[in-house]
Structure formats: structure tokens, C-alpha cells
Write a structure and sequence with these properties.
The complex is a heterodimer. Chain A is α+β, with helices and mostly antiparallel strands. Chain A is built from nine helices and 23 strands. In chain A, helix 3 packs across helix 4 and helix 7 runs antiparallel to helix 8. The chains are: A alpha+beta, B mainly alpha. The complex binds protoporphyrin IX containing FE (HEM). Protoporphyrin IX containing FE sits at the interface of chains A and B.
């Protein structure tokens, strides 16, 4: 049997703010290590770093210690997760502990106070107005309603007590903030246990019904996805990419159900699975097709797709054209020699040979990105694409917790706004009939930003005294 | 005139304002004070014009939505915006609290940031946006982060002033801490100023990156003699500030700023900075990462350091409200918070490697 005082002690421990401060500090400091020590699985980098700091002789031993306590995969280590867990429990217990008393404060409307109590407020003003008590009461209630206080009045023989409060719900702000952090945790956990984070490389023209995890494990999607086309475009005159676009098609039970173009900031979502444009690559094969758009001198248009080493004929002529060479990224060195400067299709070019019957009459490089190179005596040949040679790198994710995370963020914003930009303010005003004059005592309290509130009341009082003259 | 001319005008105005604010503190001459404010406002106006022109230049170049063309895409542009936020925040404080004392503390931060921009060789050219940055979240994320950073800078300045005002025992650890912090701050400013001069004299190309040039003229100089002298001089500067720091107290107190006001101002700037940072820095950053890469959090160094900074300020809030920490103790938490902020912003990019291509130069 558990000793009840033991549970009490755990409860007390978990409700303490000291624990919160300890957890803040520990998570903070350990995260600092996490950003210095490389968190990828490759030990080499860390050993290098350690050798720099500690010298050759003990670097390996230090690494072993780091490896044992998991500092090189810290965010997934048992102790870091325990810390987060303690953090969450701390937050829950702390919130439960205080919520009832705050709810009570909120439920209870503000009440008039005894005359003696008027002397023990830190914000306090005492002055006399040269007017009848009824007029004074009207004036004061107008002045305060300007700053948002609706005054309740309590009349007794010779005096009037008015009181009001504002922003009492702001006291809930911190609970809303705390609860949002718990929701965030729930969302993250849901994502970790019920979702996956994988990738998929899809060559143009191919399809897949699975995605892959980092460790190579296959995850069935429940439908098929096909890449119809992938395209990078560049800013004019530079190799700075402007956009990566993939045209994707979702196929379910043999039927095309959705076609969508995705870009880096606009993914495709289908049945809870999201496909993000994340990388691309070049992997040509004999099946890849060169796509040309030809305009002959007689203004006849022709679009054609051919394999490497195949030919097409320019309309209205006997001239045939053959693809004889290809470079994914062509450039010229200082001596005028051509070379390929990148592995990806950054600046693709085809080398075309023109035949009149059997004899070669012309040969020329045609660059996809440079229209100047498309011009020939026979017309214009635009190199549109080498289709089927690029693959799109998709990040594939299923995260059923993400909406909870978003909701938590929304709630947290509201909670923080209430905590920091709203305050719970109370005022009490006692008016005492003093012949034809009125003695006024104003007291006020606030849970935050006392100086600001004090100044505000000071201003109202000054303006009251001014109208009195 | 293009945007960089206007930026040039405003940096000169801020540096002059810094000198004027400091002389105002020393001589307490009202005309100097008004002049200092005038220079700050003029600099701010020119800064605003420059920012708008750059936005337009960017818009014309990129031919995309007006919101996506906001010039906040690299370290250079974000620093420029950071300075803008600080100055705006300061001007509001000067106007609301009717005091110019803070100017002497805030303009040096701005001047330091601008000097840093200039020496760093950070590319000032307008670069078109790579695809990952073509998001409207970028605007929200970066703008709000910088507003929060500005709030944190103000809290740093007021916390230092608080410590300067409240402690005169030279052996007190708090006194040592604030003088050393101020010393380090001045040394970094000075060292970067020297970098700037030598950099300009040597006429090096902008391609020499910050990483290679920072402190090259001083601490990291090839000549052992120069580097050791720099260290020795730094120690002297710190000792000097440590020794004469008490005069700062006399200066500040002669301006009728109370410790209470400073304490509350520190809390208030954090009370603005913290929620804005949560929303803009952490939440919008996560949303953006979620849109662009499909994960809202990936523990990369930049993200982790933002989280660390967030925890420091959460610590501040809880220690203050719940444990009732006041005075020097809490001022130090806010100083730690600012050091962490600076590291999140610059240190991560300069010292740690990460995925965050955003801050790359
Ligand atoms: C990083 C996580 C946390 C955040 C962002 C956070 C945020 C906040 C905020 C915004 C406030 C309101 C401050 C104000 O009213 O001005 C607050 C107050 C409070 N927090 Fe947290 N909190 C966190 C974690 C915790 C934990 C783990 C505990 C558990 C001990 C805790 C206990 C409290 C309590 C008791 C208050 C009430 C302060 C008062 O009564 O004035 N918080 N917190």
C-alpha cells in the first residue's frame, strides 16, 4: 500500500515553482549542448570537435561518455523525454492547484468595501470637490466610464460608494497559456505515434504506392502517386532557382482522382498524407525523351518527342535532325572548350546534327535556357525538356497531430495576449457629503503594471479637479 | 538616390545621435538633447524611406506579390530592420517617459548593428528569393521576431542601467557583472569599428565573408603581437569601466530616473517581447517550416536557440511573478536573456552549422 503522504509529497513536488525553474534551466542548458554536439548519427564530426577541445588522448573517451548518455541523439534520449514529461506534469499539477481559486475570483462580482478598508490601498487619492454630492457622483461616473469602468452605486444616508472592475477574465490568460502547452504536447505525441515522416523519389512518368522512412522501411500510402513532370526554373541570367514544380497525379483503384502542381511552399494533401517538394535529381535513361518545339521558315509548327540518337524532320524540308550529344549543365571554359559543370539539369543543352539526305550540313548546341541558340537557317528549334530524366524528391508526411499543434498555437497566442496585454483592475470610490461640498476617496488595485494604472487614475483625478475650478 | 544612400544617411545620423546623447548625459544641456532627438528622428525618417525604396526595388526585380517582396530575406536586411525597430521603440519611450537618458544606451546598440552590417561584407545586393523563402509567413515570422528582439534589447539596456543605479560596491558580483557586460559590449563595438576601418583601407572585396573577417584586425590578427595587445587592451577597458562605473550611477540618478521605473520598464519590454516572440518567432516559424518542409520542428540549432531564449524569458516571468525575484537578481536574468537572443540571431549563424539557410549571408 502506498502511504498517502507519499502521494502528497509527489503532488507537492510536482506543483512547486522551484521544479519549474529547475526544469527550464535544465532543458535550456542541455539544449545548448544539443546545438554544439552534432545530432546526426555520424560520429566523425563529434570526435573531430572533441579532439580540438580536449586533445587527441582523451577525445575518444569523452566521446564514449557522450554516446552513453545520448548527448549525440539528445532530443530522443530517455532523459530528455523524461524532462519534458516532468515539465508537462509540473504544468498540469500547477494549473490544477491554482485554477479553483482563480475561478472563484472570477465568479464573484466585485463588492463594496468597508470605510476602514479605504485606508489600506497602495493606490489612493483623497480630495474635495466644491459641489453637491449628486453632481459629484455624476461627474465622477462620467469620468471613469470614459476609461471603460462602469460604476455600480451603493447609496447610504450621507455617502455614496461606487465601485467597478475591468478585465477580470484576463486572470484566465495564464491558464489558457499553460493548457495550450499541454495541447501542444498532445499534438506532438499524436504525431510521433500515429504518423510518419518519409520520403519518395519519383522519376517523371513513374508512380509509386509506397513511401520510405529514413531507415529504408516501406510505408504503404493506400493509393498511388505519379509524377507527370518536374521542372526547375531559374532567375534570368543566373543559376539561382526561382521555383521547383512537380505535376502530380493521385490514382486510386486505377482511376485518376486528383491532379495538382506542387511547389516548395504549397504541398499536396490527400487522405491525411502530405507531399512536399523537397529536392530533385537527375537520372537519365535510354527511355528519356527529348522534347522539341519546331517552327519552320514557312511558319509551320511541330512538336516532337524523340529518344537519344533518333531523328525528326523539319516541316516543309528534307532536312532531318538528330540528337547527338547532351549535357545537363553546359558551360564554356576560358579556352572556349565546353564542359559540364553540374550534376543536375541546371543549364541543359543538346547537340543537334542536321542531315540533308546522308551528308551533315550543320551541327549546333541548343540550350534550353537561351533562345538565341534556338535559331537556325531552317527555322527555330526550341529545346523544351528532357522528359523522364529528372526525379522529384518528395517529403511524405502523415501527422494526425498537426491540427492539435496549430490549435495549441492559436490558444497560446490568445492566452499570452490576455496575460500580458490585459489586466484585472478594480476601483472603489467613496463620496461623503460635507455640507455643500463632497469629500472623495478613490482607491484602486490591479494585478499588474501598477505604475501605469496609478498614472491613469492620477490623470482622471487631475481632470476632475480642473473641472471643479 | 537609391536605398543604400538613404541607409548611409541614417547610419551617420544615428552615430551622431549617439555622440550627442552621451554628451547630453555629460553636460545636461537641453539644446544638445533636442539636437540628439532631432538627429535620431532624421535618421529614422531616412531609414524608413530607404526601407520602402528597397522594398520597391525588390518588388520590381522579383515580380511577385507585394508582401513577398518585403526586404527581410538575408542577414543584412534583417539587421537593418532590427535597428529600425529599436529606434522606433526608443522614440516611443522618449516621448512617453519624457526622458532622453535611454538614448545614450540604445543608439550605441543601433550604431553597433549598423557598423556590423557594413564591415561584414554581408551582401547588400538584392537577391531574388529562392523557393523556400517565397512564403507570406516569412514576412510575419521575421517582422515579429525583430520587434521582439527590439523589446529584448530595450530590456537589456534598462537592466544594465538598473544595476548601475542600484549597486556601488565595486566588489559585489552584480557590480562586476554589469561592468564586465558593458565592457564586453564596448569592446566588441570597438573591435568591429577597427575591423571596419582596416577593411575599408584594404579595399577588400565584399566576397570576404564576415566569418573570415570578424575580429581579423584585432583578436584574430595574424600578428601575435597585435592579437595579444588586443586582449590586454580589452582587459584594460573592462578594468576602466569597472573602476569608473560608479560615475555612471551619478549620471543616471541626476536624471531623476528611479530604480522602480527601470525595473518596470525592463519587465514591460519583456512583457511585450515575450508574447511577440512566441507568436512570431516560434509559432510562425513553425508554421512556415511546416508549409515549406513538412515539419514544424526539427531541432536545428537556430530553432533550438530560439527555444532556449524563450525558456530564459519564461524563467524571468515565473521567477518574478511567483518567486518574487526583484532587483539585481531579476535584472541579471534579463541580461542573460539578451545574450541568448544575440546568440540566437548571430552566434548560431556564425558559429554553428544548421539547416537555417535563411540567415546565411
Ligand atoms: C514554457 C512553459 C511556460 C510558459 C510559456 C508559461 C507562461 C506563463 C505565463 C504567460 C504566465 C502569466 C504571466 C503573467 O500573468 O504575466 C504564467 C504564469 C504562471 N505560471 Fe507559467 N508558463 C510555463 C510553464 C509553467 C510551469 C511548468 C509551471 C509550473 C510550476 C508554471 C506555473 C505558473 C504559475 C503558477 C503562474 C501564475 C503566476 C501568477 O499567479 O502571477 N508555468 N506562465
Amino acid at each position: 500500500m502506498l502511504n498517502p503522504s507519499f502521494i502528497d509529497r509527489i503532488w507537492y513536488f510536482l506543483s512547486s515553482v522551484k521544479l519549474a525553474i529547475f526544469v527550464f534551466t535544465t532543458i535550456g542548458i542541455s539544449s545548448i549542448f544539443g546545438t554544439i554536439i552534432d545530432q546526426s548519427s555520424d560520429p566523425e564530426k563529434n570526435i573531430k570537435l572533441l579532439t580540438k577541445i580536449f586533445g587527441q588522448s582523451i577525445a575518444l573517451d569523452v566521446y564514449k561518455i557522450i554516446d552513453t548518455i545520448g548527448l549525440n541523439n539528445m532530443y530522443h534520449s530517455w532523459w530528455f523525454i523524461t524532462l519534458l514529461f516532468v515539465f508537462a506534469s509540473n504544468l498540469i499539477v500547477c494549473t490544477l492547484e491554482r485554477l479553483p481559486s482563480v475561478l472563484k475570483i472570477i465568479k464573484e462580482p466585485i463588492k463594496p468595501i468597508n470605510e476602514e478598508q479605504f485606508s489600506n490601498f497602495p493606490i489612493r487619492h483623497h480630495f474635495t470637490l466644491n459641489m453637491h454630492i449628486d453632481k459629484a457622483s455624476k461627474l465622477i461616473s462620467d469620468a471613469f466610464s470614459k476609461s471603460g469602468f462602469k460604476l455600480y452605486e451603493n447609496r447610504e444616508d450621507n455617502n455614496i460608494q461606487s465601485y467597478s472592475e475591468k478585465g477580470k477574465y484576463s486572470r484566465l490568460g495564464l491558464y489558457i497559456t499553460h493548457i495550450s502547452i499541454l495541447l501542444l504536447f498532445l499534438g506532438v505525441i499524436a504525431g510521433l505515434f500515429k504518423g510518419f515522416n518519409g520520403y519518395l523519389n519519383l522519376l517523371e512518368g513513374t508512380n509509386s504506392s509506397v513511401a520510405y522512412l529514413q531507415n529504408g522501411q516501406e510505408i504503404p500510402l493506400g493509393f498511388e502517386i505519379r509524377c507527370d513532370d518536374f521542372d526547375v526554373s531559374f532567375y534570368e541570367g543566373s543559376d539561382t532557382p526561382k521555383s521547383y514544380k512537380s505535376n502530380l497525379t493521385i490514382i486510386e483503384n486505377g482511376k485518376e482522382v486528383l491532379k495538382q502542381q506542387i511547389e516548395v511552399n504549397s504541398p499536396l494533401r490527400y487522405k491525411g498524407i502530405t507531399f512536399y517538394q523537397s529536392s530533385y535529381g537527375f537520372s537519365p535513361s535510354p527511355q528519356s525523351l527529348f522534347h522539341f518545339r519546331i517552327t519552320s521558315r514557312s511558319k509551320k509548327q511541330l512538336e516532337t518527342k524523340i529518344h537519344f540518337d533518333e531523328q525528326f524532320t523539319i516541316p516543309d524540308t528534307n532536312i532531318t535532325v538528330k540528337v547527338a550529344d547532351f549535357s545537363p549543365a553546359i558551360a564554356m571554359d576560358e579556352s572556349g572548350k565546353l564542359f559540364t559543370y553540374a550534376d543536375n539539369m541546371v543549364n541543359p543543352a543538346v547537340f543537334l546534327e542536321f542531315y540533308d539526305g546522308k551528308s551533315i550540313i550543320n551541327r549546333q548546341w541548343v540550350l534550353k535556357r537561351f533562345p538565341q541558340s534556338w535559331v537556325f537557317p531552317e527555322g527555330e528549334i526550341e529545346f523544351v525538356d528532357l522528359w523522364g530524366s529528372q526525379y522529384t524528391g518528395l517529403q511524405v508526411r502523415k501527422d494526425p497531430g498537426v491540427w492539435l499543434v496549430y490549435l495549441a498555437c492559436l490558444i497560446m497566442s490568445v492566452g499570452l495576449y490576455m496575460s500580458f496585454f490585459m489586466t484585472h483592475k478594480k476601483i472603489w470610490i467613496l463620496l461623503k457629503k460635507n455640507a455643500n461640498k463632497t469629500d472623495v476617496i478613490i482607491v484602486a488595485s490591479t494585478n499588474k503594471y501598477k505604475n501605469t494604472f496609478e498614472n491613469k487614475i492620477q490623470e482622471t483625478v487631475s481632470s476632475l479637479l480642473k473641472t471643479d475650478k | 538616390m537609391d536605398s543604400s544612400d538613404f541607409f548611409g544617411i541614417s547610419s551617420i545620423a544615428y552615430v551622431l545621435a549617439m555622440v550627442l546623447y552621451i554628451s547630453y548625459l555629460a553636460f545636461k544641456n537641453n539644446t544638445i538633447g533636442i539636437l540628439a532627438t532631432t538627429f535620431t528622428i532624421a535618421g529614422f525618417a531616412s531609414h524608413t524611406i530607404a526601407f520602402i525604396i528597397r522594398w520597391k526595388e525588390f518588388y520590381d526585380l522579383g515580380k511577385m506579390g507585394i508582401l513577398r517582396a518585403v526586404p527581410l530575406t538575408n542577414l543584412y536586411e534583417s539587421l537593418v530592420f532590427f535597428v529600425w525597430c529599436i529606434i522606433l521603440g526608443y522614440l516611443i519611450i522618449e516621448w512617453k517617459y519624457k526622458t532622453r537618458t535611454f538614448g545614450a544606451f540604445i543608439t550605441p546598440i543601433s550604431a553597433m548593428a549598423l557598423a556590423f552590417i557594413d564591415i561584414s561584407g554581408m551582401s547588400k545586393e538584392i537577391h531574388p528569393l529562392v523557393p523556400a523563402l517565397q512564403s507570406n509567413w516569412l514576412l510575419a515570422h521575421v517582422t515579429l521576431s525583430f520587434i521582439a528582439y527590439a523589446g529584448f534589447s530595450v530590456s537589456f539596456a534598462t537592466a544594465i542601467m538598473y544595476l548601475a543605479l542600484s549597486i556601488d560596491d565595486k566588489k559585489s558580483p552584480y557590480y562586476i557583472l554589469w561592468t564586465v557586460m558593458l565592457g564586453l559590449f564596448s569592446i566588441v563595438l570597438l573591435a568591429m569599428g577597427i575591423d571596419y576601418l582596416t577593411f575599408k583601407i584594404a579595399g577588400l572585396s565584399q566576397k570576404v565573408f564576415l566569418k573570415n573577417y570578424l575580429f581579423k584586425a584585432t583578436f584574430r590578427n595574424e600578428s601575435f603581437l597585435i592579437s595579444i595587445t588586443s586582449y590586454a587592451l580589452s582587459v584594460c577597458i573592462i578594468l576602466f569601466i569597472w573602476n569608473y562605473g560608479i560615475y555612471l550611477k551619478k549620471l543616471i540618478s541626476s536624471f531623476k530616473i528611479t530604480q522602480n521605473q527601470l525595473d518596470e520598464l525592463t519587465y514591460k519590454s519583456i512583457a511585450v517581447g515575450f508574447p511577440v516572440f512566441t507568436l512570431g518567432g516560434l509559432i510562425f516559424g513553425a508554421v512556415w517550416a511546416d508549409q515549406a518542409w513538412g515539419r514544424y520542428w526539427s531541432w536545428d540549432p537556430k530553432e533550438t536557440w530560439s527555444l532556449i531564449t524563450w525558456f530564459v524569458y519564461a524563467f524571468y516571468i515565473h521567477a518574478r511573478l511567483l518567486r518574487g525575484w526583484r532587483g539585481a537578481k531579476i535584472a541579471i536574468v534579463s541580461i542573460v536573456g539578451f545574450v541568448s537572443t544575440i546568440f540566437t540571431y548571430l552566434g548560431v549563424n556564425l558559429l554553428l552549422s544548421g539547416l537555417h539557410s535563411y540567415g546565411s549571408m
